[in-house]
Design goal:
Structural class: mainly beta
Number of domains: 1
Number of strands: 7
Helix content: 10-25%
Radius of gyration: 17 Å
CATH class: Alpha Beta
Shape: globular
Length: about 150
């Protein structure tokens, strides 16, 4: 996984309880993704949905996972935007739903209550197929400069 990232990747992420920052691939993978976010996750992780695309040269991926962490079932959604140069991710932003208790087909001791990182969330099924509303066009969009990355 480290090889997918540029050694000096600019990484930022938001989870319900924290913002994350790193400037090197090893910290992103070993310290954040595997060392914190997915620490304690069992091997039964399942990709429920996966979608991707791009806007200009910026890429995006959305996915939902069913997984078991420390014996409890959860559902998780993440959205990532990233830039690629030389075959590696050089810039990445991630937004995470946090671990949402339970997932279809599994009973849970904590079903019906929200976990530490959980917040109010609409069921993913109710969001699928909805198109975002277009933004009002009352002002011109700011030009994407170095600060817009």
């Amino acid at each position: 996984m480290v090889r997918l990232l540029d050694p000096h990747v600019e990484f930022r992420a938001l989870t319900p309880g924290r913002d994350w920052r790193a400037e090197d691939a090893t910290t992103v993978v070993q310290g954040i993704i595997l060392g914190t976010w997915f620490d304690g996750v069992d091997e039964d992780m399942t990709v429920v949905s996966l979608a991707g695309g791009s806007v200009g040269e910026r890429h995006a991926v959305d996915y939902e996972l069913n997984l078991t962490r420390r014996g409890e079932p959860y559902r998780l959604a993440q959205h990532a935007c990233f830039d690629v140069s030389g075959g590696r991710i050089t810039w990445m932003r991630v937004l995470c739903s946090g671990y949402q208790p339970g997932h279809p087909g599994h009973a849970s001791k904590n079903a019906g209550r929200q976990g530490k990182e959980a917040g109010p969330a609409a069921p993913a099924e109710s969001l699928r197929g909805r198109r975002p509303r277009p933004a009002p066009r009352s002002r011109p969009a700011p030009s994407p400069g170095p600060a817009g990355r």
